[in-house]
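Technical note accompanying the year-one report. For the benefit of new consortium partners, we illustrate the data format agreed upon in the data management plan: each record pairs a sequence with a structure-token string. No post-processing was applied to the example shown here.
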Amino acid sequence: MKKFLFSLLAVMIATTSFSQKKAVDAITFTQLKHDFGKIKQGVAVTHDFSFKNVASQPVVIESATASCGCTTPTWPKTPVLQSKGDKITAGFNAAAAGPFSKAITVKVAGYDLPVELNITGEVLTAEDYAKYEATKTKKNTK
């Protein structure tokens, strides 16, 4: 009896995991991660995550939610037609010095599992950024 219940439970779990529709089946991004590198504190930066609709019908991006308030995503509010592309823009305010790693969760209407986009980098104080730029300039003149 235990073997039967265990087998039934395993089948139910497998069926549930396979029945969830993934957003990556509807839209394909050219990249899922972007590294800003070293950026100056207080200078906002943005990056466009381009995607293409690979579904057989138009898709709607329901939401793009950032992991914190320092990251501001914007996304298309109208349906993206089949085989057409668009973008999700990730804005980062660079207020606090130090390394950062932020996630943006993209939910597509009709799909259970979202897509996660990631931005990383390091925010430098004005003084540290000036030093960084100076070392870059020296390397380029050699």
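Partners are asked to follow this layout when depositing records. The radius of gyration is 21 Å.
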